[in-house]
Amino acid sequence: MDRTQFQKLYLDYERGRIDRRAFLKASGLGLAAAVLAACTPGAGASTKPSAGTSSDWTPPEGVNLGDTLNLTTWPNYHDQATLDKFKDLTGVSIALTIFGSNEEMLAQLQAGSTGWDVLVPTNYTFETYGQLGLLEPLDLSKIPNFVSSRYEARFLEPAHYPAGSSDLFGISKDWGTTGYVVNTKNATKPMTSWKDFFDMAQGELSGKVMIHDYQLTSIGNALKYHGFSFNSVDPNELAKAEETLLAAKPHLFAISSDYQPPMRAGDAWVAMAWTGDGVQLNRDIPEIKYIIGSEGGEIWSDFFAVIADAPHRDAAYAFLDYMAVPAVMAADAAFHGYPIVDSAGIDLLPADFKNNPIIYPDEKLLSPLEFGAAVTLTDQNRADLWNRVKSA
Amino acid sequence: MEDSEGRSKTANGRGSGLVTALLLVPTTAWYLFLLVVPLGILIVFSLGTRTDVGGYSPGLTLQNYADLPTRWPAFQNTLTLALIGTILCALVAYPLAYYLATRAGQKRTVLLILVILPFWTSFLVRTYAWLQILGANGIPSLLQTLGVEPRPVFLNTHAAVLLGIVYNYLPLMVFPLYVSLERLDKRLIEASKDLGANRLRTFFQVTLPLTAPGLVSGALLVFIPMMGEYIIPSILGGGKIYFVGNALVDLYLQSRNWPLGSAAAIGLIALVVLTATVYLRLTRVSSQRDVSLL
Hints:
The complex is a heterodimer of chains A (392) and B (294). By secondary structure, chain A is of the alpha/beta class. Helices cover 42% and strands 14% of the residues of chain A. Chain A has 2 domains: 60-175 and 300-354, 3-Layer(aba) Sandwich (D-Maltodextrin-Binding Protein, domain 2); 176-299 and 362-391, Periplasmic binding protein-like II (D-Maltodextrin-Binding Protein, domain 2). In chain A, strands 1, 2, 3, 4, 5, 6, 7, 8, 9 and 10 form a 10-stranded mixed sheet that branches. With 294 residues, chain B is mainly α. Chain B has one domain (72-287): MetI-like fold. Chain B is 75% helix and 0% strand. Chain B is built from 12 helices and no strands. In chain B, helix 8 packs antiparallel against helix 9 (199-227) and helix 11 packs antiparallel against helix 12.
């Protein structure tokens, strides 16, 4: 179609001689419009592969769920298909707010009036959240699909507040470890420990290594380098970790928790990483391996929790119940690559997922790992140390 | 007669006073609620203490200000890079503005639009574009194919952050310079030449002093936002090139030490005010003339 033809067509449309559909079709703009529509979130949902089938879960009867749910979570952590399916079943669309650290989530909640409904907190936050009354104790009668007997106790325990009480403030989403990814094509010398990580960062890998922009993991792993506890708040041990971090800093490529892009681009060869990022990177670039430091380090578990005074409380409970359905969580895990806890959900996982050593590592690598402690998150000395390292 | 005249005058005066007051309401409210009140909150917070789990608890201590020197590297880094950035902006912008004002001729309008054009795209998008250009698959890999070994690293260096801030704030320097060069009386330059001064001498004795106000205001326009910069160092500096802005974000959101964060924010404001004042004093003395901000 040339310009004059298009102009004529446009005039016809403007004057009402043809309708919008005919105009779009004849002008070829319809295709562009269709592509745009498909890119609009939610619009193309019905044609996407669904997470489980609709019979896996039905919304609670006689409850008005509204039309929105605010979910505050981590990057690369949910399959859009899972969220779209929830919208199809309930009419509730989920708005995501993405954070890089538990500390930032906590800072926002402390400031107040977030309007959030569902939060994805990590094990060590519950004591602080409980103390500050920021989450609500879950009414389990509204989450019938959650069957606690199918959950390994060590992963569920942290969500009880006060510790040991029967009040549960979160249900498990998944768990994982904090190790590091290595592009073995570039970093050819074998690496197995945090000692390797920090020593080689200052040696042959200078300029190619990244650590998290997160005091909890970066300080914790520097503590492991010296053989101290990941959770240490001992001033002498922290001083040693600070030395290590300060010595490594000029050799680092970056201090950032957004390490997937530089690992993919080849800017970074080694980066402190969480399980799912290891899985996602290894899936696309097989020479990128995931290492759990032989000295130990962190094992963690994440939860779905409901914010106290959540504006869309009923939708929040409906979402927790939906995510507790084994078929739904298994389909979601296939996307994000983090191991899940519910044994019925694990049964539904494909064999290559269950046998992936990044996702379910050998028990002998797991046993030295520690769960982060509440004080590890909030300790003033650690906070100050991290600030000094970053501003050095 | 006198009586009624006097009364009508007063009424007039009152009327216009009321209009003036009404016209000033939006600006006053703006400054009161978005500048004075937040500043007051900052001051109050800066005198408090951090609770055990972070945040703010009321107090009356100067400890946070006493702790400020521990953040000195961030202040020093910010000041150094903002100063170098401002100087680089001036060095790049002056020839450009000179060309636009004196030599561009018919192309001038188009070229001026080209200077503003980058502002039509989001600042964030442009900075991310630099991330790609400077990243391993950008210029470094191009240089590698041209035989530069090992592949150079540009990202997360002081140079990358400098490039980012100069690139982003350059137009703010170009425009005031352009305006002052454009207004420059060309006959003065001719006179200088007629009196035997060569081009260099004419530039340093006539053109530069007469366009100094543009240079001074341009420098302030780029220096002040550079001091408060946060996004460019965090994208192009990879958490290694640390500005006070980054320290503030970390203090508020990571370590949740709001009182120290507030003290650091006030420290930054003080540093900017101090530097700008010293700068204005110095430029005023050296050029022996009043300098207007814009």
